[in-house]
Amino acid sequence: QHDLLKSASGIADRLGVDLYLVGGAVRDLLLARRPNPPDLSAVGAATDFPAALAKALGGQVTADSQFGTAKLRVREALVDLALARKEFYARPGALPTVEPGSLEDDLARRDFSVNAMAVSLNPGDWGELSDPFDGAGDLKRRLIKVLHPLSFQDDPTRLFRAIRFSGRIDFTFESDTKRLMRDGLRFLENVSGDRVRHEIELVFQEQSVVAILQLAEQLGLLAAVYPSLSLTPGLAGASSDLEADRELVLLSSLVYSVPRNDLDAVVRRLNLGTDWSRVAADAVAVRDTMSELGRPLPPSRVYALLHGRHEAAISVCALAAVPEAAENLAHYLTRLRHVRPSLN
Ligand code: CTP
């Protein structure tokens, strides 16, 4: 990445553009974590700068958007490049209106102080840190802190970002930020299903996912997405179940307490695709057989109750089950589902 950034620096300088490493990339650099991919911000650049930079680096633009952001692929490396900008939110949870801005504008529109730092990449001041909100201090203090009181109202997806970072790097919330988070929960209803689901998917990819989901539950974030979303008890001990079908196990856990009649509403709220909807329905269906599964049953009945249900859904129900039911579920998973009759 260093060589790539050096080349980008020379090209930006030739084109009269101020180029910075920004946001999460600077945070990760100061934490000695590898930023992947690096985020760059260009000040004073024309809209064709991403294409010009990609071309000069021998790469290509793989995606660009109306917000002046682009993804470049240069050999094996990916780079996120954005033109520095100001943002305005017309209403809570809406996507922002964007216009070109200075580096200061670009940092001030961001979520948390630790994500609002920039490092200059131009040869004249290579490596110089811009840190108007004392993000470096908050990194040392291990604090997640918003830059202004309307941050969660403008963009309620930041509630998910806050819990992701706090779980990932073991940070706590600054006291005003914590209060604003609780207050910001009500704005989540303005955010589309796709955007909320995307944030949940990002949480699912975090290494400390269970701790992060527990925090989401404590803060009321799961309930703000849909009232009966919660975590199955026992998930914390399920690290081996998280190896296979990780996302489906986590999804099953989240919907485990959803009343059957609310399932369609949850599917609509998160705009779940076919696979996720099916697994969510399986988790709820298996849960509804738990009292029967808690009784001594012939294997044929256990098979009939569980046949065709997704393994992830069954594993999650096993975590929450009374011992007798857990035994029937485990029997099904380890043996009964593999039994084939000798006669057709
Ligand atoms: N950002 C923001 N509000 C959001 C999303 C992003 O202010 N809702 C800003 C933050 O400054 C963030 C940067 O845009 O650091 C880049 O966003 P992204 O790549 O999504 O996140 P990272 O902070 O890089 O986090 P991750 O390590 O999870 O990619």
Provide an overview of this structure.
With 344 residues, this protein is α+β, with helices and mostly antiparallel strands. It has 18 helices and eleven strands. The strands form three sheets. It has a seven-stranded mixed β-sheet. Strand 8 and strand 9 form a beta hairpin. The radius of gyration is 24 Å and the shape is elongated. The model has no long low-confidence stretch (mean pLDDT 92). Cytidine-5'-triphosphate is lined by residues 23-24, 39, 110-111, 115-116, 155, 157-158, 161.
Shape: elongated
Helicity level: 40-55%
Strand arrangement in the largest pleated sheet: 3-4-5-2-1-8-9
**Alpha carbon gap, first and last residue:** 60 Å
Bound molecules: cytidine-5'-triphosphate
Number of helices: 18
Please name the defining characteristics of this protein.
two-stranded antiparallel ribbon, alpha+beta, 47% helix, 18 helices, 11 strands, 344 residues, binds cytidine-5'-triphosphate, 7-stranded mixed β-sheet
Topology of this structure?
Elements: H1 2-14, E1 18-22, H2 24-30, E2 39-43, H3 49-56, E3 60-64, E4 69-74, E5 77-83, E6 85-88, E7 97-100, H4 103-108, E8 118-120, E9 129-130, H5 135-141, E10 143-144, H6 151-154, H7 158-169, E11 172-173, H8 175-184, H9 193-205, H10 209-218, H11 221-225, H12 246-255, H13 263-269, H14 274-287, H15 290-293, H16 299-306, H17 311-320, H18 323-334
Helix pairs in contact: 7-10, 12-14, 12-17, 14-17, 17-18
The protein binds cytidine-5'-triphosphate.
Write a brief structural summary.
The protein is of the alpha+beta class and 344 residues long. The chain has 18 helices and eleven strands.
